[in-house]
């Protein structure tokens, strides 16, 4: 019992230390964003002027980042869920090779991937200057995360057996996919969606080369504010970033938890 209490206290202490190490700098940055003069400190007073200035200058980057993230999520879901099912349905060397090829954009630095896209498609004027070019890069980067999350959910649910049973009862391939496979893999799909959205909103390296002055996203605008504006403005941008991202992450986590719970109940009922 003594060892158990000691281990608990040690684990709690280590967790709090790590949390303080990670959250402390963020809190300092947020504090600077609402301080009139960071170098004077809180004694200079608190203000929301820096946040208003950030919103006036960079509001378009925030909404553009949401649009890019949602478009990336839609495309990765449409491509990733069927791809994960094919890889699950036909395991073997070819499937492993395809999965390894999918992970190449993750292994390769984002700048290299962006450069490859520019060399390949940069001559297409309308595409190079549009947000769609950034969406393509984000899809390449996040698709492996969607495929792996969905495939893990499919393998855990043993869907191959359920699919074969439904086929023997005369269900078409399309009906089996939408009525059995997708609902049973819902938790994996939601987990993949959470990963895709958060990665897309925060992606910087790849976007830095793909963006134009008219297609800046939130992370690019954040870097721009740190490079060319006052420290208080850049810190206020960080605060706006957190205020926009945290509710989205909490909401997706809640949806993922509900999907996991209901998915397990639904699968148990179907079996």
From TrEMBL:
Gene3D superfamilies assigned: MetI-like
Membrane topology: Multi-pass membrane protein
Record keywords, A-Z: Cell inner membrane, Cell membrane, Membrane, Transmembrane, Transmembrane helix, Transport
PROSITE patterns listed in its UniProt record: ABC_TM1 (PS50928)
Subcellular location: Cell inner membrane; Cell membrane
Coiled coil spans: none
A Pfam family of this chain: BPD_transp_1
Keyword Transmembrane: yes
Residues annotated as transmembrane: 66-90, 102-124, 130-147, 180-201, 234-255
The keyword Membrane belongs to this UniProt entry's keyword annotation: yes
Highest taxon in the source lineage: Bacteria
Stretches assigned to the ABC transmembrane type-1 domain: 62-252
Family of this protein: Belongs to the binding-protein-dependent transport system permease family.
Listed name of the protein: ABC transporter permease subunit
